[in-house]
Amino acid sequence: MIINKTSLEVEAIDVESCLQVQGDKEVYKNAVYLDLEHFIYKIPKCIGVFGVCYFNGSNNTIESEQYMIQDKHDAKDILNIIKDFFTASQSRYIITFAGENDFSVINYLFKKNKLTFDFERKFTLVDLQKNYLKQTGNTTGLKNLEKIFEISRGGELISGSNLAKTFGRVIKEYGYGQRMSKEKADKILKYNLEDVINLFYITTQWNKYVSYPSKD
What is the per-residue pLDDT for 121? Predict the structure, then answer.
């Protein structure tokens, strides 16, 4: 398994610009930002990358963790990593974009592998796509929302179908994950990292770009 941990400094945060949930102005600092890359063929087959980040107020940084499978055994191990991470987390919120897809994959694979964890019992789940729809009446994708928030990506965009094909080969073809070039693995990790980090930036600049304030 490939494990990648990154620390990024952030500029001063204007609390009044941040997304609020039920009057809580400090959602951003009490949240885990989650994004998965996965392989689904009729049913979920595996989680290829588990990516998260969270705000470290003592250092004014975003700390990210990524776990990427390299074979079918890693596909089982990554589920335990997910459970252990969220069991230990002291955060109150999990922030996603179209998070129902990610949680449906996690919950299906947890059940298949006899793992249990109730995300909704421990955390308040915040879906930025749903919040944007609620406040503006418009549905949008993450990449379009990044443009609205004037967020530029440095890495190459990768289609979901290409990611699915890659992780399909990882779990089916012995040794493929180890043979994969470092350049390709780094490209996938950078793509996932930008997804996760941009959830943080969108959350902390929400009221600058979303016209209608939340009624929560």
Answer: 94
